[in-house]
Amino acid sequence: MINPTTITNYNRTQSELEEFLMFSIMVAGKSAKQTAQKLNQFLRMREDCESPLEFLDNLIQDGKLDNTMKVCRLGQYGRLASAFEGIVKLRNRLHEVSVDTLESINGIGPKTARFFVLHSRQGASHAVLDTHILKWLKLHGENAPKSTPSGKKYAELEQAFLNYAVQYDMPVADLDLHIWKQYSQK
Fold it and tell me: Could you tell me which of 40, 13, 9, 12 has the C-alpha nearest to residue 27?
């Protein structure tokens, strides 16, 4: 099961990477702890021998994905179904999948793609511009909106965050997690 307080892990197995990618997709706009519990409930429905993406692929092939997601009350069914259908094609490529490839999948945006790569790949240099990071950037004098921007504004704020990581001599993933813990406890 995913532990949101220790999300960074550069040594995940293939199955753990698959589960983490599913978590990354599901957590957008939701409580990390609750999402981890729902994903765990969803994955308990699979056969012991199936990896998470094999399970998804089987559900899709059998036409049972929507119903199984509803039984587990995952929410955002259309977005999740689109994203889950897209990621099954990435099986065995998750150790090197790019942010651009992830973003090309319907239902995965810049924040989700960067979250997955940042917290699963050592040395990754991406900013996950969620509400916590945006508040933190605003407190540091950046012109940050309240919700995740796109395009040039995302790139501008991402670079600002990466500059702060260098300034504080912290790995980007550590700074991200430090800020998330600081704001999520309030």
Answer: 40
Q: CA 138, CA 182: separation in Å to the nearest integer? A: 15
Quote the distance between the C-alpha of residue 165 and its chain's center: 20
Measured over the CA atoms of residue 101, residue 104, residue 110 and residue 113, the dihedral's sign is: negative
Secondary structure of residue 178 in the 3-state scheme: helix
- Residues 73 and 142: their CA atoms lie apart, in Å, by 38
Identify whether the C-beta of residue 46 lies closer than 8 Å to the C-beta of residue 52. yes
**What is the C-alpha separation between 10 and 122, in angstroms, rounded?**
6
The whole-angstrom separation of Cα 110 and Cα 122 is 19
Amino acid at 31: S
pLDDT tens column, 30-58:
888 999 999 999 999 987 668 999 999 99
Q: What is the pLDDT of residues 101-114, one digit of tens each?
A: 999 999 999 999 99
Kind and range of the H or E run holding 65: helix 65-71
- CB 125: neighbour CB atoms within 10 A? 17
